[in-house]
């Protein structure tokens, strides 16, 4: 067996993915592993153990990012990093994020076992948070590694139960000033293996995808304040109904997005009405806004027009309107030479491949501002993700690890 075919790279991957999925397994199906919750902490400490078992040293930084390290022989050489995020959405799948971490651990263990110590140090990271599913902040892990995150948000951001990010972080033992700083300046490259979360590969029949650009993203928290009132005695014309106002805004947003056309997407994924009671006109509504496009100026313009439309709806209805911008990422081009390396590795493994845009946001989007970064996709069945039905076959999962191992070999051993 020619070790350079890296056929053994995925040894241990599948059981590791299953064990990881148990942390936050939702009785309704899927996985819910939100930042700084008990399942999150248990998963990170479990992964630290698996990294050490794989012969890596493991350490946490102040935000709870976990790094497994395979020391290189060339002192002072910058580090080659792979990995992804350990957090999930509510009732998400078992592959989003987790696959990139498990694959990185499997690949580093395989490379070390097969080729010994690398010239350049290899690390696999389990970023603490990427989704923005518990707190309005997203990319809390990679954002701090890149120096693009703001610690003061830890006190400004609260979850739906009113717990601040800092309180949650300290509850699971992170956020202490004496803990290692998150900022890295010693990275030569970042390569992230991830499920596609879309249907392009399955439709095209290719085995792997090489990401050229990750779309830009804006996230807002919108608050509408009207007047709670009696559902039976308040005439329609005298209401300041925050829920009816939100409904008009959401319908207007969808119409604007359809008019703009693909690939722009606009989503209201979370809505909380107060007092959320059948016989009370809603006095306050908070909802989230997630807008994405691969063109920065068009994305910014769409957001401006949408928020202006919301303001005019609110004014007409006598509602107070506030939109707080929690995330603004520009479209992120991936590193061309790393993309070419992944393509060559795919060819060498005899896998069909295509270049593509990622409609999903990823840690590589932020890492690309710090060091040359690239992303490798494997197919998602039916394009489904952020759902308990997220699925990728074992053979497809193993394809990805083979290509990742080949790319890491080129980057760290040659
Ligand atoms: O929302 C996203 O695109 C990513 O999965 N965080
Ligand atoms: Mn996700
Ligand atoms: Mn992800
Ligand atoms: Mn993502």
From TrEMBL:
Residues spanning the membrane: none
Record-annotated Peptidase M20 dimerisation domain positions: 218-311
Binding site for Zn(2+) 2: 96, 131, 386
One GO molecular-function entry: hydrolase activity, acting on carbon-nitrogen (but not peptide) bonds, in linear amidines
Keywords: Hydrolase, Metal-binding, Zinc
Official protein name in the record: Allantoate deiminase
Cofactor note: Binds 2 Zn(2+) ions per subunit.
Chain sites annotated for binding allantoate: 219, 279, 292
Family to which this protein belongs: Belongs to the peptidase M20 family.
UniProt cofactor(s): Zn(2+)
Organism expressing this protein natively: Paenibacillus methanolicus
Pfam families: M20_dimer (PF07687), Peptidase_M20 (PF01546)
Binding-site residues for Zn(2+) 1, renumbered to this chain: 85, 96, 194
């Amino acid at each position: 067996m020619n070790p350079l075919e890296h056929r053994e790279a995925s040894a241990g991957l599948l059981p590791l993915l299953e064990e990881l999925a148990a942390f936050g397994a939702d009785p309704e199906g899927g996985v819910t592993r939100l930042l700084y919750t008990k399942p999150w902490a248990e998963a990170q400490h479990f992964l630290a153990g698996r990294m050490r078992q794989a012969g890596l040293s493991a350490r946490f930084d102040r935000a709870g990012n976990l790094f497994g390290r395979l020391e290189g022989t060339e002192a002072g050489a910058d580090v080659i990093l792979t990995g992804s995020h350990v957090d999930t959405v509510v009732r998400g799948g078992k592959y989003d994020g987790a696959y990139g971490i498990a694959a990185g651990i499997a690949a580093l263990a395989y490379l070390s076992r097969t080729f010994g110590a690398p010239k350049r140090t290899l690390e696999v990271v389990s970023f603490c948070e990427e989704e923005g599913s518990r707190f309005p902040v997203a990319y809390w892990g990679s954002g701090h590694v890149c120096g693009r995150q703001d610690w003061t948000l830890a006190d400004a951001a609260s979850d739906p139960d009113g717990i601040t990010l800092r309180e949650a972080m300290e509850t699971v033992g992170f956020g202490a000033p004496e803990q290692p700083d998150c900022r890295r300046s010693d990275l030569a490259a970042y390569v992230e293996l991830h499920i596609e979360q879309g249907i392009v590969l399955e439709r095209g029949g290719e085995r792997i995808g090489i990401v050229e650009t990750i779309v830009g993203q804006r996230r807002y928290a919108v608050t509408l304040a009207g007047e709670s009132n009696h559902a039976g005695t308040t005439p329609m014309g005298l209401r300041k109904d925050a829920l009816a106002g939100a409904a008009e805004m959401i319908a207007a947003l969808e119409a604007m997005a359809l008019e703009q056309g693909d690939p722009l997407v606009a989503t209201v994924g979370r809505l909380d009405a107060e007092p959320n009671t059948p016989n009370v006109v809603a006095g306050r509504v908070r909802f989230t806004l997630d807008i994405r496009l691969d063109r920065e100026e068009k994305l910014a313009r769409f957001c401006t027009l949408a928020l202006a439309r919301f303001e005019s709806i609110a004014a007409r209805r006598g509602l107070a309107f506030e939109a707080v911008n929690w995330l603004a990422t520009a479209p992120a081009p991936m590193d061309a030479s790393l993309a070419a390396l992944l393509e060559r590795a795919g060819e060498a493994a005899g896998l069909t491949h295509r270049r593509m845009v990622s409609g999903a946001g990823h840690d590589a989007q932020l890492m690309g501002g710090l060091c040359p970064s690239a992303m490798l996709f494997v197919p998602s069945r039916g394009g489904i993700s952020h759902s308990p039905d997220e699925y990728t076959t074992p053979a497809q999962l193993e394809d990805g690890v083979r290509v990742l191992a080949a790319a890491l070999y080129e980057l760290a051993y040659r």
